[in-house]
Amino acid sequence: MNNRKKNNGGHSLKVIPLGGLHEIGKNMTALEYGGEMVIIDCGMSFPDDEMYGIDVVIPDFTYLMENSRKIKGIVITHGHEDHIGAVPYLVEKLNVPIYGTPFPLGLIRNKLEERGLKGRLNKIHAGDTIKLGCFKVEAIRTTHSIADAICLCIDTPVGKVFHTGDFKIDYTPVDGEPIDLAKFAEIGQKGVLLMMSDSTNATRPGYTRSERKVGETLEAIFARSKKRMIVATFSSNVHRIQKIIDLAKQNRRKVAVSGRSMINVVGLAEELGYLKIPKGILVDINQTKNIPDKQLVIITTGSQGEPMSALSRMATSDHKAIKIKPGDQIILSSTPIPGNEKLVSNVVNLLFEKGAEVIYSDIAETHVSGHACQEELKLALSLIKPKFFMPVHGEFRHLKAHADLAEELGIKEKNIFLLENGDCLELNKRQAKQLHGIVQAGAVMVDGLGVGDVGSIVMRDRHLLSESGLIIVVASIDQATGEIVAGPDLISRGFVYVRENEDLMDQAREVAVKALDKCIHFNTRDWNTLKSAVRDDLRRFIYNKTGRNPVILPIFMEV
Ligand SMILES: [Zn+2]
Ligand SMILES: [Zn+2]
Predict the structure, then answer these.
(1) Fold for the domain defined by 469-558
(2) Which of 79, 274, 326, 418 has the most C-beta neighbours closer than 10 Å?
(3) Which of 112, 35, 42 is nearest to 72 (CA)?
């Protein structure tokens, strides 16, 4: 035992963020000590505008694959996509044990089942401590915009690491289970080596309002409405859905649920006891026609304006069961996630055009954030009192603002670390040191069934194709004589409308003919030389004529 202690004494703790820094999305952090590793969360992010055709983005698992034997388990803080969305992709490669509270675990189970996977899922509850190798992980009740969220206090051989997960300080949460601040204080008393804390709202002064506030706003709308109501919100916000169901009951309305993820989550949440749905109140969305407007509320997905979501389909008259009509009362119980503003305002405009009354967060307090603002962040920092601090979960401006707050509270600047994904914070009991770019940690893009097969070269082609389109030059060439037997023919996509530009295309064809003739005249029979001659001449001609640079693809066949 003594010997082992001595050996361990030489190690330091490595904290390695694989995602979630300089971005809001794909949160994942590895904690490594000696030959053992635990992972916190395994999230995905949505592609940015430059990632043409990409469905989702996940963290780079290379480092985990290389160190798979060390991994003792993944601990999940809560069930949002930016924390669990990449789990199926990891389980496909490494079936490591996953620990989480019942709700996120249920969401993960559904995701895995959809892909025919079976994970090693282990239930924990707030208040539990589990031992994963040399790490003792304690789950602490917190409040966030999803049920069953936890913070983690991880006891390591060099000291305690406190990870807030996503949180806000809600003293009056809908489920009556407030954040366990007493536990924060108790842990702070014992001494915390490193704190990692949610930076999403670090630029916002004050406090985030309680979820109860949204309840009050909705209550007022329900009380005065005599119309059919349609409420769009995040399917994962079970507490808000509960509130809507409760209000429906009070106001003698039936509830119909629309949207795949909403139906899935409502089913799961009821099964696990997070949603209490009074008997007889739920009706099938296809059976709502005969229910009087003032006796119906529809809960739907699409609060982010997602084009394929139920609310968007209602707005564009593509929804099978629900047709928007003048007088409908539509509530967007959400705010747009940065980047989705345009999508949301498109949907709101369409709904107004159909004569509906739309209430959204600019008009009434139909949404509150799930993340702590400055005063709450300060309280958490003051209770935990860490020696070292590392802001997480945010773009760089959020991380920086959070670092400034910590400094204001007396944490020394040299003890605050702003890491990037792939960096490593190496800690022992006394010191911490930031190492840059230690681990491969980029964005792995998922397109359809392909994971990571779309890299920068494919993306560059997609970019070029999307900007100026494509011209294909097809010709058949006689093997023996080198003469053109057929073609060249020009086919274009996304470049110009051919029927209105026949002259241009004819001239372009002439340019291709000349380029080929020239090569044949000089007896060039090397395909690559031939192709680049045609490509170069054509490119020059088209640029001079149109100022555009389409992708030019020569295809020559030997006959
Ligand atoms: Zn979250
Ligand atoms: Zn998050």
Answers:
(1) Ubiquitin-like (UB roll) (3.10.20)
(2) 79
(3) 35
Coil, helix or strand at residue 131 = strand
Asked, as a colleague might, if the bond just before 278 is cis with ω within 30 of 0, I would say no
| Contact yes or no for 278/327 (Cβ under 8 A) | no
What residues flank ion ligand 2 with Cβ within 5 A? 82, 166
Q: How far is the CA of 80 from the centre of ligand 1 (A)?
A: 5
Q: What's the 1 CA to ligand 1 centre distance in angstroms?
A: 41
Could you please state the CATH topology (level 3) that the domain comprising 2-206+369-451 is classified under.
Metallo-beta-lactamase; Chain A (3.60.15)
Task: Round to whole Å and give the CA distance between 512 and 535.
Answer: 8
Give the distance (Å) from ligand 2 centre to CA of residue 282.
Answer: 31
For 60-64, 179-183, 228-232, 447-451, which range has the lowest pLDDT when averaged over its residues? 447-451
Beta pairing, strands 71-75 & 36-40: parallel
557 residue type, one letter:
M
Find the helix or strand (DSSP H, E) in which 528 lies.
helix 527-546
Find the ligand nearest to 19 CA: 2
Rounded to the nearest whole angstrom, what is the distance from the C-alpha of residue 59 to the centroid of ligand 2? Answer: 14
Instruction: Write down the pLDDT at residue 7.
Output: 44
Q: Which tens digits make up the pLDDT trace of 199-239? A: 999 999 999 999 999 999 999 999 999 999 999 999 999 99
Find the ligand nearest to 236 CA: 1
pTM over 0.90: no
What stretches of 387-439 show up as alpha helix (H) in DSSP? 396-408
- One of 3.40.50.10710, 3.30.70.330, 3.20.20.60, 3.40.640.10 is the CATH number of 211-359, namely 3.40.50.10710
Selected catalytic residue, list 60, 166, 198, 423:
198
Give distance in angstroms: CA of 166 to centre of ligand 1: 5
SS3 letters for 150-200?
A: EEEEEEECCEEEEECCCCECCCCCCCCCCCCHHHHHHHHHHCEEEEEEECC
User: For tokens 């359809």, what's the residue?
Assistant: 448
Residues 479, 557: contact at Cβ < 8 Å? Answer: no
Pairwise CA distance, residues 223 & 294, whole Å: 11
Q: Which of 163, 371, 398, 402 is catalytic?
A: 371
pLDDT tens-place string over residues 413-432: 999 999 999 999 999 999 99
Q: What is the pLDDT of residue 556?
A: 84
Instruction: Delimit the domains of the chain by residue range.
Output: 2-206+369-451, 211-359, 469-558
CA of 371 to the centre of ligand 2 (A): 9
Quick count: other Cβ atoms within 10 Å of Cβ 107?
29
CB 62 within 8 A of CB 26: no
392, 197 Cβ separation under 8 angstroms:
yes
Respond yes or no: is residue 371 known to be catalytic: yes
